[in-house]
Amino acid sequence: MHEPTASSPDGLGPVRADLLIRNAWIVTMDDERRIYRDGGLAIAGDRIVAVGPSEVVEHAVVARETIDGRRFELTPGFVNCHVHITGEPITRGYVPDDTDWRTNVFDWLIPTYMAQNPAEEALSAQLAAVEMLRSGTTCFVEAGTIIDLPGVVAALEQVGIRGRIGQWVQDRAFDPAEDQAQLTAAAIGRLEDQIARFPARDDALLAGWACLVGHNTATDELWRAASALALDHRLGVTAHMSPDPADPQFYLETTGRRAIEHLEAIGVLGDHVSLTHAIHLDDAEVATLARTGTRVTHCPMTAIKGAYGASSAGKFPEMHAAGVAIQLGTDGANNANAQDMMRAMYLMAGLHKDARRDASLFPATSVLEAGTINGAAGAGLSDRIGSLAVGKKADFVAHDRDRPEWVPLLNPVNQLVWSADGRGVHSVWVDGKRLVDGYRMTTIDEERLYSDIEAAADGIIARAGKAVSSAWPVL
């Protein structure tokens, strides 16, 4: 028996809806993981008011607009829990393939970030948002490398994506001449300011987040302050950690404990914390993550591009078995070269199967959970997004079945993870607004954006003191 889809406010008649999509495949990701072969979804304003079999939903609502959805598979919007939206999208792919982690970060990426101006940073953010939306991502958590936060927020507001964002925050004094106390006070002040300036209200698409650069760049005092602020404001903390053995080695040398063990010792771990990469861990650290409820954001595209060792050293299967909540991220465009969460899901599904020669690891259902409901929880929004259920925000994606990779449609979850990618995203709604319609943005002039990006890229690279190299002659 199907649950009632909705009722009108007075309980006397059908629900009034702005939009009804009927006759679609619907992968709800609700608590029962229901999938409707001939499903209906209705929204009013920014909320879902009905979802279920088409026949039931059609009788439950009176809609201003109706779409025949037999061409579509509907899913919740994906949640990208780690993405650099500035610096890298505007210089996509110019970092040579053969750079190791340290060279990539210190010799290429940081100079690129420092070379951009506020206008270019805003353009980069818009490009990242457009790419995410057009491949089905409706919400993201920024990786903590924004410099001009107000300018980026204004740029993103024009696009309409949902996000949790923060500016570049680190405080460790690597130069003995620096004033450590002053650096820490300034970093904490930046966190406090962005949380106050961009509060996480229920109706806020964009909100400040406790984003730390992570690695070895944050002192214990900054970690404690970020954790306390997040808990006080019901937010989260996100930080890079252990993509390379350099992170655990630093903590061992300076504290006598590995990175995750040290963070537990100073009392900052918990389900409000998401650590990105978390590749070079030992078994005790995996147990610590599970015991504290700390989340891990897996970025498989970056791991492969940067040779981080996720397949050989990563303990993601052990984390999953221990109950660690794994969510997904696409990271930076110079590492992953795409902000397509469906590509990240495909890699997560296959990477560890092959590494362990165990086909049972990370089935498509678990991977889709990582990209939707786990990500929603990591963004502090599990009560609002991540599944298609009555009362949730109307953030959803229409995947186009009128494409060869979607035919025949027999298993909608396997098809989504193994066969399809973001190029098949036809339409996207965020907060009840249709931001992508027929493969095109409705809120921003894409041609102008792409032209502006092309014009700006060379200048940033030149100011960073870099050049685009090619193994083959470019004539």
From TrEMBL:
Pfam families: Amidohydro_1. InterPro entries: Amidohydro-rel, Metal-dep_hydrolase_composite, Metal_Hydrolase, MTA/SAH_deaminase. Signal peptide: none annotated. Keywords: Hydrolase. Residues 74-434 form the Amidohydrolase-related domain. GO terms for molecular function: hydrolase activity, acting on carbon-nitrogen (but not peptide) bonds. It comes from the Bacteria. Belongs to the metallo-dependent hydrolases superfamily. ATZ/TRZ family. This is Amidohydrolase family protein. It comes from Novosphingobium olei. The lineage of its organism: Bacteria, Pseudomonadati, Pseudomonadota, Alphaproteobacteria, Sphingomonadales.
